[in-house]
Amino acid sequence: MQPEQQGIEVAVLVSVGRHPITGRARRADQDARGLELALGLERQLPGSRVSLLHAGPRGEESESALRGYLGMGLERLTLLEQAEGSDAIPALAEHLAAAAPQLVITGARAERGEGSGLLPYALAERLGWPLVNGLAAVESIENGVATLLQALPRGQRRRLKVRLPAIVSVDGATPVARQSAFGPARRAELVATSAPAEADRELAEWQLAPARKRPKRLKIIKAASARDRFKAAAAKAEGGGGQVLKGVSAEQGAEAILKLLNEEGVLR
Amino acid sequence: MLDTLLPILIFSALALAAIGAVRRVRLWRQGRPSAVPLLKGLAALPRRYLVDLHHVVERDKVMSNTHVATAGGFVAAAVLMILVHGLGLANPILGGLLLAASATMFVGSCFVARRRRNPPARLSKGPWMRLPKSLMAFSVGVFLITLPTVGILPADAGHWLLALVLSALVVWGLGELVFGMAWGGPMKHAFAGALHLAFHRRAERFGEGNRSTGLKALDLEDEAAPLGVEKPADFTWNQLLGFDACVQCGRCEAVCPAFAAGQPLNPKKLIQDMVVGLAGGSDAKYAGSPHPSQGLGGKPVGEHFGAPHGPIVAPDPMTGGKALVDAETLWSCTTCRACVEECPMMIEHVDAIVDMRRHLTLERGQTPNKGAEVLDNLIATDNPGGFAPGSRLHWAADLDLPLIADLQQVDVLLWLGDGAFDMRNQRTLRALVKVLRAAEVDFAVLGNEERDSGDVARRLGDEATFQSLAKRNIATLSQYRFLRIVTCDPHSFHVLSNEYGELGGHYTVFHHSTFIAELYDAGRLAFAPWKGGKVTYHDPCYLGRYNGEYEAPRNVLKALGIEVKEMERSGFRSRCCGGGGGAPITDIPGERRIPDMRMNDVKESGAELVAVGCPQCTAMLEGVVDASAEVRDIAELVADALVMRPAGGAVDATRRPAGKTTAEEVI
Questions:
Q1: A26 touching B, CB under 8 A?
Q2: Which residues form the 4Fe-4S ferredoxin-type domain (chain B) (predicted)?
Q3: Tens-digit pLDDT profile for residues B515-530
Q4: What percent of chain B has pLDDT above 90?
Q5: Chain A residue with minimum CA distance to B366
């Protein structure tokens, strides 16, 4: 017998993304994947409704980025308009508590701002809703319980049952977002409502600096058989070892580096 | 008896034709408005027909003469018949002329019949197979009934039965040629074709040496204007009229690279699909080659249907529904314009295809395969590969290229194109720089200020991204002063010179082969004699058919001492490499690859090297596995052959600034 499936209310939280090379505003990759997941649910569960929610200031650049989500086929986006540097969490929590969607989808972390990935957790804490991170798929939703597939490292999946309402966050495991089309994006409506602007005090204390690429440790694979080589290739790079030198002279530092390079076999 | 019957027959046929014509005109008028000067167009019609159209038809001499005899004979016979038999002006001179006209028409129709005996695959069958018989019926019928008029036969000659047979012949002929012309028979091409020539959307393409190849811009400011074509009624009325003019000769089908590769596009069928769309119904009556379908012998007819206000492409690709045309048909086109060049009815296939692609991309977000990724890259990084815009000059780190931002004013602005990111094309660019320096050209590059020209975005239907790139490029170019732009990319060449104008950017653009030919003629380059093997030349579509430059590359090769072994399809009939129109990005599968077929053409010419003048062609042709010929850009051949000019050979050696790098130091 076909289990009883009903349409649900899905809210997708979207942010203004940042292109990794040029830094231009765009639809954020993970948030767009979240919206793609929601649109898939809409197809899977007829009668579902997807709403888009963004908290932040309204500007030309951010508007064109937000319209990127609308170009995926939505008619409106609710914009909780806030001053620059405001904390989005109280505004979102208040709106979600009032709108009461059954499922909230967010990306795992934003592409600009702090990008700490804490927003879903902070929201879940405030609302008292369960949170599932690293979502891969929504398998079914029956009688207020969602069966979810969570992505674990190295391709593993874990099936979870979660009582709704819940918050789920997506990273790279969900399907890639569909193309954003110019026409629908241009026609769609940004419904702006003013939201409580609570200055983000913590952010104000932070020091922001351009990110630097972290050096990657080279893996030395000493494997006799093909199986060992495969295991080594599939294993995650492990850290450990190393030492921190503080207050040493340039000569001592150079010597320590030379010693390490010899040990690692980079120099011989 | 015939004296009373004939006027009735003639005038009732004309009246019915008039009713049909009104109905047909109303079908065309479903399209969107398009401003064309109606009276001026009609005045230009004879010249467009007798000169421009005939110029295309004449490429097939036998068919051209056949058409002249048949059509000329028919038009003359029809007019004279109205006078002689309709209005009863039984004048022996008019009658004699009528006899001559119908005899000429009969001779022509015999040739039409001969061609229909074993018709080539590109011709449509169905109602077209009866056309020669109808032509013969008309000409014979008219000839015989006119004999008494000139007094060769007595007026009461023959039995009443003979008169009845003759009237039947005339009725058949009038039915096909007059009534059928306005009611959708094969002769529709004459009626719609004449009006299409008069009200053509690209009036500027007519006239000796004229061409009009730039796509027309969408008005993005007007939010009510449709973004591309969703349904047949979204075409302009004269585009619809153009589709209706199709004579189904299949010349487009014969030259289409996608059709030859077994990709699901037959340009002739596509135009007939549009005719089905404008009239409403299914394509079941189509009697030509279908759109190819991998291994299935073609997509069956009768499964696709449309209406003037129904969607052309089924809205939901997931459910696999069918409408008038499948999306893959539209995405198979390489925009090579071979069909447009070959079409005797001057139909603009490429415009229509891009119009429909615009809807798919801008409204539905359904650009297939890598399309969406490429468009996203163009939006975010201004180049299709998603490379850092600041790395555009990395290939030239050791060349010390002058930047126009430093100089502000130069003779030549060298437009690099997106080939600057491609390692193969970087070799071409380095060669071109070497040549420019050897000829002491005062040039500079935009460097990191350059963006993609927007060519790919536009052919993929993303007019918004094209216009955004174009407007920013135009703004950048407006800051500097230069006499002309030189580029080794025919796609950039075409867009800069033919498509930026509508957005406010007017430039003199030269393809590098044109520029090199000019430098050689001015004595600023000297070459060592050619020692290599046989060479052929591949005409890039965007240089040749789009811009009419066939001579300069051949002149450069001649200057190098190379005798070009022409391929069977060269010049305006050159076969596409498969790299245009975003086709490598949308990558619609076929039974063969277009570049493989082209390299086969090269092999058949016996050449060991194929000279090209386009980064796309280079990439496509060099991607052919186990090719029999090498692929070299003209700039590379020139750079390899450079020798020091004989002293005093330089026309303007005085211009040379002291301490300028010589060619030998560059590479």
A1: yes
A2: 237-267, 321-352
A3: 999 999 999 999 999 9
A4: 83
A5: A179
Identify whether residues A197 and A244 lie together within a single domain.
Answer: no
Q: Residue A214 falls within a domain, yes or no?
A: no
Whether residue A219 is contained in a domain is answered as: no
What gap in Å lies between CA B165 and CA B158, rounded to an integer? 11
Judge: B365–A179 Cβ closer than 8 Å, yes or no. Answer: yes
Average pLDDT, chain B: 92
Which of B365, B366, B380 lies nearest to residue A19, judging by beta carbons? B380
Searching chain B, which residue's CA lies closest to the CA of residue A68?
B376
Buried b (16+ CB within 10 A) or exposed e, B42-59: eebbeebbeebbeebbee
Residues A230 and A109 in one domain: no
Residues B223, A182: C-beta atoms closer than 8 Å: no
The answer, yes or no, to whether residue A52 has pLDDT greater than 60, is yes
Nearest residue, CB atoms, B223 vs list A73, A179, A186? A186
Confidence grade of residue B233 (pLDDT, cut at 50, 70, 90): very high
Residue B305 pLDDT greater than 50, yes or no: yes
The pLDDT, as a whole number, for residue B318 is 62
Which of B222, B223, B362 should one mutate to test binding to chain A, selecting the residue with the greatest count of A CBs within 10 A?
B362
B362 min Cα distance to partner chain A (Å):
5
Beta bridge partners of A163: A145
Residue B68 to residues B1, B72, B141, B186, B518: CA-CA distances in angstroms? 34, 5, 20, 17, 42
pLDDT at A5: 58
Yes or no, beta carbons of A71 and B364 under 8 Å apart: no
Q: Where are the domains of chain B?
A: 2-198, 221-363, 375-666
Given this structure, which CATH class describes domain B221-363?
mainly alpha
CATH of the domain at A145: 3.40.50.620
Convert the pLDDT of each residue in B31-45 to its tens digit: 999 999 999 999 999
Spatial CB neighbours of B324, under 8 Å, sequence gap ≥ 6: B232, B273, B274, B276, B277, B283, B304, B305, B306, B310, B311, B312, B313
| Closest-CA residue of chain B to A25 | B380
Are B608 and B535 contacting, i.e. CB atoms less than 8 angstroms apart?
Answer: yes
Which residue among B227, B381, B382 sits closest to A183, beta carbon to beta carbon? B227
**Nearest 5°: phi and psi at A76?**
-150, 160
A212: in domain: no
Q: Cβ–Cβ of B380/A183 closer than 8 Å?
A: no
Note whether B388 contacts A21, CB cutoff 8 Å.
yes
Total CB pairs under 8 A between chain A and B: 49
Residue of B nearest to A71 (CA): B365
Domain match, A100 and A230 both: no
> What DSSP line would sit under B335-400, residue for residue?
---HHHHH-TT---HHHHHHHHHHIIIIIT---TTTHHHHHHHHHHHSSTT---GGGTTGGGTTT-
Same domain flag for A110 and A196: yes
What is the residue range of A254's domain? 226-264
> Which one of B223, B365, B388 has the shortest CB-CB distance to A181?
B365
Contacts of B375 in chain A (CB under 8 A): 179
Whether A43 and A139 share a structural domain: yes
Q: Which two structure tokens, joined as six digits, stand for A141?
A: 């939703």
DSSP A18-50: E-TTT--EEE-HHHHHHHHHHHHHHHHSTT-EE
Question: Do A122 and A153 have their domain in common?
Answer: yes
User: How is B640-660 classified by DSSP, letter by letter?
Assistant: HHEEPPPTT--TTGGGPPTTP
The distance of A190 to chain B (nearest Cα, Å) reads 16
Interface contact B380-A71, CB threshold 8 A: no
Note whether residue A53 is domain-resident.
yes
CB contact under 8 A, A22 and B361: no
